[in-house]
């Protein structure tokens, strides 16, 4: 059928014509091409900086598992049973997501297969809608059809979402979790809350397709979308995170979204790409069962008139993980530094060294304090420059964090790390936790993409001719 025209109901599908027969071979076939191994470098080109980032990424995942093990071992002490709560937090929100991200980078295709991906790299919700038209027209149609624009995820909206879920307070603009398509997060999402219950909602995410990109089969779509219905809140099967659980039959939600648009904008043509994918049942990134018939409606909103100017292009935002990582570095340096300086100021610090007189002890104390302050100043400068998106300072910071974590891991048994019956001091555990959390944050994909974009922008600015 033609995209842009209504689909006939219960259309009879014609059988395929028989395949032509190949001429018979008169001679015994011989394989003419010598076998060559296709390496991963040919599929995904690797550069030194990329390999270095991969190393930091993997090391951060191993370090998060190490931190989870330490918390579990310390949690065996009767007075620290509450450590099992941060153990679950580290395992569910840090260790398992990073482990999934590393493994899926290896075996999940990095091209369009009709499925989105979670931030952990797992296959997410299926793509089940396509749209033609400009962004402003799409916003106009969705708002007219009774849908509410979801707010982006920030510390404030995330906290508000947690409170509304716990107390079942209405939150019509609640953020949705990020899903990725074409290598980037959804551009925006719309939702409809059900009966004022934040646990239940209709929602659909939208992604702008690359310029000139065509769907399999040569069909055009300016936007792709994934719509599902949240039926409750529960734990993810793969990461143990608290998340929404979706209804298995995503075709019902897909048809509901299209029906709301057709009801409020009957002039909008809707076509269907039948058998866009084979009908299948699977699981999404949260472990929920999904099933679909494989059809893909294409909604043409380009016929909808809009008023006003075009939306201003969005500037890339500094990822929250970058800010968090830099703040953790500052905290990691300030707290131990304060303790060290207080110890250095003790009058009896050099009492066991009779060779040092009062003046020599003062010099030693001043040099020690100066060295500590210098280290803190260096870490502060690195943190500020990294937050600004400087590539080389991020690399140096990751190297320092990696070295610190590896050194602590080797010295861990002597310090009591992970030893049942022995408890770590709060300062030691805080330093290790801050270092691992900072390494996880600064090695994340969002931070790497941000600093690379900043570097590319600086290169483009240098190439521009200076104004006369």
Automatic annotation (TrEMBL):
The keyword Nucleus does not apply. Residues 1-14 have a biased composition (Low complexity). This is LssY-like C-terminal domain-containing protein. It comes from Naumannella cuiyingiana. It comes from the Bacteria. InterPro entries: LssY-like-C_dom. The chain crosses the membrane at residues 47-69, 81-99, 322-345, 365-391, 398-417, 429-451. Residues 1-38 are annotated as: Disordered. Pfam families: LssY_C. The lineage of its organism: Bacteria, Bacillati, Actinomycetota, Actinomycetes, Propionibacteriales. Signal peptide: none annotated. Keywords: Membrane, Transmembrane, Transmembrane helix. Residues 105-296 form the LssY-like C-terminal domain.
């Amino acid at each position: 059928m033609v995209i842009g025209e209504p689909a006939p109901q219960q259309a009879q599908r014609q059988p395929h014509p028989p395949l032509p027969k190949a001429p018979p071979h008169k001679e015994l076939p011989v394989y003419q091409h010598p076998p060559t191994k296709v390496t991963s470098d040919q599929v995904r080109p690797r550069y030194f900086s990329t390999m270095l980032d991969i190393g930091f990424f993997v090391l951060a995942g191993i370090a998060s598992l190490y931190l989870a093990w330490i918390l579990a071992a310390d949690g065996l002490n009767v007075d620290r049973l509450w450590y099992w709560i941060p153990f679950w937090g580290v395992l569910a929100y840090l260790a398992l997501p990073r482990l999934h991200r590393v493994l899926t980078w290896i075996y999940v295709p990095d091209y369009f297969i009709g499925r989105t991906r979670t931030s952990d790299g797992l296959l997410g919700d299926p793509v089940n809608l396509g749209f033609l038209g400009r962004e402003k027209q799409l916003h106009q149609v969705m708002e007219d059809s009774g849908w509410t624009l979801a707010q982006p995820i920030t510390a404030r909206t995330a906290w508000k979402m947690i409170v509304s879920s716990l107390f079942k307070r209405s939150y019509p603009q609640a953020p949705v979790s990020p899903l990725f398509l074409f290598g980037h997060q959804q551009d925006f999402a719309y939702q409809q809350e059900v009966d004022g219950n934040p646990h239940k909602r209709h929602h659909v995410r939208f992604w702008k397709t690359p310029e000139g990109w065509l769907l399999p089969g040569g069909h055009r779509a300016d936007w792709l979308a994934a719509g599902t219905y949240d039926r409750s809140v529960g734990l993810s099967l793969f990461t143990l995170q608290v998340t929404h659980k979706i209804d298995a039959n995503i075709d019902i939600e897909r048809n509901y979204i299209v029906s709301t648009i057709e009801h409020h904008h009957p002039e909008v043509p809707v076509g269907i790409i039948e058998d866009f994918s084979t009908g299948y049942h699977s699981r999404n990134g949260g472990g929920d069962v999904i099933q679909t018939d494989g059809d893909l409606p294409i909604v043409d909103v380009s016929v909808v008139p809009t008023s006003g100017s075009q939306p201003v292009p969005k500037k890339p935002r500094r990822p929250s993980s970058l800010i968090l990582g830099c703040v953790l570095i500052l905290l990691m340096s300030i707290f131990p530094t304060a303790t060290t300086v207080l110890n250095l100021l003790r009058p009896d610090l050099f009492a066991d060294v009779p060779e040092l007189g009062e003046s020599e002890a003062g010099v030693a104390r001043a040099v020690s304090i100066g060295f500590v302050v210098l280290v803190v100043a260096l870490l502060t400068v690195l943190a500020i420059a990294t937050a600004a998106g400087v590539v080389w300072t991020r690399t140096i910071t990751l190297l320092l964090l990696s070295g610190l974590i590896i050194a602590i891991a080797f010295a861990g048994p002597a310090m009591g790390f992970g030893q049942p019956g022995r408890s770590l001091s709060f300062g030691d555990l805080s330093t290790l936790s801050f270092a691992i959390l900072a390494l996880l944050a600064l090695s994340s994909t969002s931070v790497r993409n941000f600093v690379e974009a900043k570097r590319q922008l600086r290169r483009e600015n240098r190439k521009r001719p200076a104004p006369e």
